[in-house]
Amino acid sequence: MAAEGQEHLWDKEEKEHRTYNDIRIFTEEELKKAAYTEEELKAFKIKHATPQMDELEKGPWPSCFSDVKREALHRKKLGQDNLMLPVECCEDLLGQVELSYINKETHWKHGGIIGVLGYGGGVIGRYSDQQDKFPSIAHFHTVRINQPGGHFYNTDYLRGLCDICEYRGSGIMNMHGSTGDTIFLGTFTEQLEPIFFDLTHDMGGDIGGSGSNLRTPSDCLGMARCEWACFDTLDMCYDMTMSFQDELHRPAFPYKYKFKFSGCPNDCVAAIARADQSHIGTWKDDIRIDQEAVKEYVAGKIPPDGGAFAGRDWGPFDIQKEVIDLCPTQCMRWDGNKLTINNPECTRCMHCIDVMPEALRPGVDTGITLLFGAKAPILEGAQMSLVTIPFMYVKKPYDNLKEVTRKVQDWWMEEGKNRERLGECIQRFGLKTFITDVLGIPVMPQSIREPRSNPYMFFKESEVPGGWKRDIKDYRKKHPL
Amino acid sequence: MKFLYNTLNMDKSVRKHIRELLENRDYDRLVDLCEADRNYWKEVRFRLYEIDEKLRWPAIETFAKIMKKWWESGREKKVREYIRNLFWSINDESGGIGWNAPQTIAEIIANIPVLIDPYGSMMIAHTIEEPPLVKGCLWGIGRLGEKMAESVDFFKEKLLSVFQSDDVEILGLAAWAMGEVGYKPAVPFLEKLRGNKENVSIYIKSDFQRKSVEQWAEYAISTIKEN
After folding, report:
1. Do B5 and A250 touch (CB under 8 A)?
2. Residues A60 and A198 in one domain
3. What is the CATH number of the domain that holds A337?
């Protein structure tokens, strides 16, 4: 628990808050017995010969092989009576991976439909195709667990998760999957419902998303720790998660749909690259400048980049070279005494703020930029999210955001093909359809980079101030058929 | 279809309303509301994952009735898209499971019989080897009965192997389904179920019927012999 006087509000206010001692599976005595020394680990040999995997332990890097071997020893010391899965499952896993290295192909069968009752996602079925050789990993299902916002765990919660994973699974966890979830790697079908029960009833947690549903929303740590957060990512992520529970657990989408929340344009959760719906904090007013602090950076009194450039002599800080010249819109000027920014030209790249955090800060009139359509290569190539609503004020209960979200999801559910991400659907119908027909937003020239060369964007006369007159005969004089 | 966009409170009221209508099996009202307001249609789709059988089965029936209405009004393409979506939910490689997709597909075929080809045999092909979906597959076969005879024969070995299951619900459903199809090769397997006194409930004609596995088997044997 937290140090005295520094208890988290959660500990004080949450009624019937459970500690690890309330939810633990293994007793202190059992865990003490299962503890091993480094000598024991060195002497420990798994039951399969793994010469190729042994190579992974050489060199200076952390090795997943070493981690799994540790867990194999821990399981052995815990004993089969204390485990629901075969004690040797980690050893069999390493044996199968070794075989895959030899054969140069996977020995996991493709897919397998599996899940917990009432939920249409959250578990990914996996079976070994070498069940005779490696019976203890005949099933090796992955369970996705909805992670706490910003990945803020306390040790009670972490230890509780570890107990469930070790008792009802292989004991191997992935912190975290690329979507952000906590992942239990490897369990049998019979353990899925008990894991679900323990997780929801004892831990107060939930399973995450997989399949054609809303994937587990993820966020940066936001205002809890970061001075640049332009909105409360933790609150919005939690609120949206709770509001879209059906979408998260009861798949009705054509394919996956991801929410990601980044508090500022640094975009620490890479929302712009990965989320179908990216929420990125921004500001409307001017970047706040502390001119005195700028001078201190220039004078070398404050280390740039928060002191990140260390370990060798990087030379004196050159504001012209390292900030002004790198501004993508060239909207900054340093006259040797004063820094000026042409704020309307700023594209929120955050570079100047990142380099001189004590001198520059985001503005105070804050909200989000809403972007849609990022994805990895699936039917089409990778796409970044597209700025669709440049600025939106966001305030709990976020009704304006939910309204836009439902419009987009409803359209995609109606028009999207199976396995077609939102971004691909927008491409197929055209940006114009998405912006004007689906969202009801007037098209702006800023929506596209080069209006005159973009063949997919057509403006109506009524959409352009002043309109235009077009005479086809006049046009044909210059452009004959 | 009219699009209405609402706050969370509106969602809750739609959810509550849908639950009441499903519990009361007010299918006409449900179909009308789903036609008028997308939120209701979405809610019916979510209820396909419902654990409470009193809500789940009416949701499956409502889904099928909506498909029938669309089909009859010329929206055949849309109906096929939703059926493909149900198949996708039991074929998704990224960790999804359409728990009640086979039942829903069968109920749609029962409402739109022309869809038996190809979706009837596809329903069996996609589910018979997936343990969590076998019960739904068997229910679907039973729901469609004799119309599935050809497909059942095509999947003979896989289907008859379910009689080796330890799960009494699978045994009861298999017995009932084989009886509804009138599938003679199943008789020796049905005879082996004599003596199994465990009870199994099956949703038939919008109601739950509860019998022992033995009774389901006897009923099936007599139905097959009558045919």
Report:
1. no
2. yes
3. 3.30.70.20
Task: Name every residue whose Cβ is closer than 8 Å to that of residue B105 and which is 6 or more positions away in sequence.
Answer: B83, B86, B87, B119, B123, B140
Residues A45 and A148 grouped into a single domain? yes
Is B95 close to A189, i.e. CB distance below 8 A? no
Asked if residue B43 belongs to a domain, the reply is yes
Rounded Cα distance between A230 and A357, Å, is: 15
What pLDDT score does A2 carry? 41
A351 and A400 assigned to the same domain? no
Which of B6, B46, B96 lies closest to A210 in CB terms?
B96
- Residue B129, chain A, CB below 8 Å: the answer is no
Average pLDDT, chain A: 91
**How many CB atoms are closer than 10 A to CB B165?**
15
Which chain B residue is nearest to residue A143, measuring alpha carbons? B95
Smallest CA–CA distance, residue B133 to chain A, in Å, is 8
pLDDT per residue as tens digits for the range A358-371: 999 999 999 999 99
Q: Are B86 and B105 in contact (CB under 8 A)?
A: yes
- CB proximity B90 to A under 8 Å: yes
Give chain B positions within 8 Å (CB) of A125.
Answer: 95
Domain at A423, CATH number: 3.30.413.10
Asked if residue A158 and residue A92 are part of one domain, the reply reads yes
Give the pairing type, strands A259-262 and A277-283. Answer: parallel
Containing domain of residue B53, as a range?
1-73
C-alpha–C-alpha distance, residues B204 and B210, integer Å: 10
Predicted model pTM: 0.90
Q: Verify that A394 and A295 share a domain, yes or no.
A: no
Q: Is the pLDDT of residue A313 over 70?
A: yes
Number of domains chain B contains: 1
pLDDT tier at A234, thresholds 50, 70, 90: very high
Nearest CA in chain B to A414: B78
Q: State which residues form the domain around A131.
A: 18-209
Which is nearest to A385 in space by CA: A257, A283, A284, A263? A257
Q: Which residue of B has its CA nearest to A119?
A: B49
CA distance linking residue B188 with residue B191, whole number of Å = 5
